[in-house]
Design goal:
The complex is a heterodimer of chains A (215) and B (456). Chain A folds into 2 domains: 80 residues, Methionine synthase domain (Methyltransferase, Methionine Synthase (B12-binding Domains), Chain A, domain 1, Orthogonal Bundle); 125 residues, Rossmann fold, CATH 3.40.50. Chain A has 9 helices and 5 strands, in the order ααααβαβαβαβαβα. In chain A, strands 2-1-3-4-5 form a 5-stranded parallel β-sheet, with helices on both faces. The model of chain A has no long low-confidence stretch (mean pLDDT 92). Chain B has one domain: TIM Barrel (Alpha-Beta Barrel), CATH 3.20.20. Chain B is built from 17 helices and 12 strands. In chain B, strands 3, 4, 5, 6, 7, 8, 9 and 10 form an 8-stranded parallel β-sheet that branches. Chain B starts with 17 loop residues before the first strand and ends in a 15-residue tail after the last helix. Classes of the chains: A alpha/beta (215), B alpha/beta (456).
Chain lengths: 215, 456
């Protein structure tokens, strides 16, 4: 079994210490950090993400794998920076103003990180200005807003209007999600994308970033 | 623990319509006195809640409650509870919540008089202490307004006071997605219990001072979150089942501190509370599908005294306003239950409700009357709340394992490994609160959970 395959498999089993050691071994062997990231860590998260999407594993198993990925990433980060490798996209994520629910949002963050995206999690009860401020500061690709309540989902429109009001609408793609949010609501408030669950949100964000960065 | 023996110690006595300690309202609505009544809750359509929209909101509440009660009278509903579960802004700014309570109470009084019906309001302020992170359960700047809404709402005529309190939720959410039973037991059996004592001393004092009835609390933010996550296949169903069991001693505290019922609808643990404390309970199931999915649509009806829709948005459907449609569904459900009582076939109906659900899900299995009595017996024998929480979880696991073994419960093979994992984690928990706190202290992020806010 190659080292990269072993990294992927240990990650899928949530073996953080082993992943850490294997990543170090791969670096020591002179493997390109980008290859370790893509064919080791992201490959493993891709497999576990796919299993989650197909209802083969539960969230705790994905979380354990994500922790193993973070352990490996910590070792890999300086080497990626030296090699000039950047995250495949940056997402500003938060639950909208007036809404304190974050279980769904946290799952979205986990799945997006598993796709190699950098996620800036602003937490809950996030006012529109804060989404914009963070997006500008981090030169983000996507602003992703979550809401669980029918009385707070309307805040998503305020986020979009705030971004547009500052002349930044074309710069950021805006995603919306959460239990009461629908495709038609997404269109009605002028958001770019609706995702019905955490896995789809991660897939869509990764695709959007690829598309945006391609051109 | 105050309750050391069961109010209902035989599963045949655990049945809809009758509770050992029924509760009678000022207008003479007796809950748990031999009949089941509907409990109707509605919420706003998608809209903002602020000073600009408030006049429209008030009109929505006024028109909806009138429509609901008028339809209830047309369907010969003799008694009904209208639940007003406030939205965040209505508790942060209690003037909104108080005035809307007045709107609902006025309609209940007027239409009860007109139609000879007994309509009452249950006021359920949301727990705004959860509005800051980490929450300060005892020193929250939001506590005063929340208690003011209880008090002024009671003064405005609300008959029953309830809440979905959130003590321990800041730890429980994370424990849930990690399927960490130690975190769950600590959140519910230690933090939740301590917060319930603190909060329910306030609520029962308000109820007693105002001459209204302290209804009860629900672990909705805990066990129903688990149930919804299990429905989405995010966590194993068996974990959601034991999470429900873990919530029993926590929710029981309301009755130890003087609440009288009816317990609140979304607390599916209410059935255990009925067995232990003898209080009447509101339950929800298939007719609450307008609010959320559940695997306990029929079995949850088996011991209800009020039958609820949980909540429905005030939008328009082909059949009319959604709350009116929902009321109609509840009314027909309740007719069937009461007809079975009248014709002395209620036990048969109850057993059909139970039998139709329990092979499909461990969460349904533990709500079956036999399971309830067995788990409730373990709870009252425990001596303290932490031990009771551990006993409830352990007994629920035993019941689930036996049913799987006897092929009375179909369980996804993916779930089986979790039964073993939960049992192993559970065995490591000391039956002593001090030792458990010591064990958990190293694991708790002080940026997320303030133990001093629980008197620790």
């Amino acid at each position: 079994m190659s080292l990269l395959t072993e990294i992927s498999e240990m990650l899928q089993r949530g073996k953080a210490a082993e992943v850490k050691n294997l990543v170090q071994n791969a670096i020591d062997e002179g493997t390109d950090p980008r290859v370790i990231l893509e064919e080791g860590l992201l490959h493993g998260m891709g497999v576990i993400g796919e299993k989650f999407k197909n209802n083969e594993v539960y969230v705790p198993e994905v979380l354990i794998a994500a922790r193993a990925m973070n352990a490996g990433s910590e070792i890999l980060k300086p080497h990626l920076a030296d090699a000039g490798v950047e995250a495949s996209g940056t997402v500003i994520l938060g639950t909208v103003k007036g809404d304190l629910h974050d279980i769904g949002k946290n799952l979205v963050r986990m799945m997006m990180e598993g796709k190699g995206l950098e996620v800036i999690d602003l937490g809950v009860d996030v006012p529109p200005e804060k989404f914009l401020e963070a997006a500008l500061e981090r030169n983000a690709d996507i602003i992703a807003c979550s809401a669980l309540l029918t009385t707070t989902m309307t805040e998503m429109k305020n986020v979009i209007e705030t971004v547009a009001g500052e002349g930044q609408r074309d710069r950021f793609r805006i995603m919306v999600g959460g239990a009461p949010v629908t495709e038609s609501f997404c269109k009605s408030v002028g958001a770019d994308l609706y995702a019905p669950d955490a896995s789809s949100a991660a897939d869509a964000a990764a695709a959007l970033c690829r598309e945006k960065r391609a051109g | 623990m105050r309750f050391t023996e069961l109010a209902i110690d035989d599963s045949t006595g655990l049945i809809f319509g009758t509770a050992p300690r029924p509760v009678t309202s000022g207008r003479g609505l007796t809950v748990g006195g031999g009949q089941v009544y509907p409990e109707l809750n509605f919420t706003l359509p998608t809209m903002e809640v602020n000073a600009r929209t408030y006049p429209e909101i008030k009109e929505i509440y006024r028109n909806t409650v009138d429509d609901v009660l008028t339809r209830a009278a047309a369907l010969h509903v003799e008694g009904i509870v209208v639940e007003f579960e406030t939205l965040l802004e209505m508790t942060l700014e209690p003037a909104y919540g108080i005035e809307l309570t007045e709107v609902l109470v006025e309609a209940c009084e007027r239409l009860s008089a007109r139609y000879g019906m007994k309509a009452e309001v249950r006021l359920t302020p949301n727990d705004t202490r959860d509005y800051e992170r980490p929450p300060r359960m005892r020193n929250s700047p939001y506590l005063e307004n929340m208690l003011r809404l209880f008090d002024e709402g009671a003064k405005a005529g609300a008959t029953f006071l309830s809440i979905e309190s959130t003590g321990g939720k800041e730890l429980h959410d994370e424990a849930l997605v990690n399927c960490d039973i130690q975190g769950v037991v600590f959140a519910l059996g230690v933090l939740g219990v301590r917060d319930m004592r603190f909060l329910w001393d306030h609520i029962t004092k308000i109820a007693n001072d105002r001459g209204v009835i302290a209804g009860g609390d629900t672990a909705c933010g805990f066990a129903n979150t688990a149930m919804v996550l299990a429905e989405k296949q995010y966590i194993p169903r068996v974990f959601a089942a034991v999470d429900r069991a873990a919530s029993i001693p926590r929710s029981l505290v309301a009755y130890e501190r003087g609440a009288r019922g009816p317990d609140k609808d979304c607390g599916y643990e209410g059935v255990f509370l009925k067995a232990i404390a003898g209080v009447p309970i509101s339950m929800e199931g298939k007719t609450a599908a307008c609010a959320h999915a559940s695997p306990v649509g029929n079995v949850s009806m088996a011991a209800c005294d009020l039958w609820s829709n949980e909540s429905v948005q005030a939008v328009h459907l082909l059949g009319g306003p959604a709350p009116v449609v929902s009321l109609e569904q509840l009314a027909y459900d309740v007719r069937l239950l009461n007809e079975s009582i009248r014709t002395r076939q209620s036990l048969l109906l109850r057993d059909m409700l139970v039998g139709s659900d329990i092979p499909h899900d461990p969460q349904a299995l533990i709500l079956a009357p036999d399971s309830v009595i067995r788990i409730a017996r373990a709870v009252v024998a425990a001596g303290d709340h932490l031990t009771a929480t551990l006993a409830a979880v352990g007994t629920a696991l035993e019941i689930i394992e036996e049913a799987v073994h006897d092929q009375r419960l179909r369980m996804d093979p993916r779930e089986e490994a979790w039964v073993t994992m939960i049992r192993e984690q559970l065995a490591q928990i000391p039956h002593n609160e001090d030792l458990f706190v010591e064990m958990m202290q190293g694991r708790i992020d002080s940026g997320k959970v303030l133990l001093e806010e629980y008197g620790l």
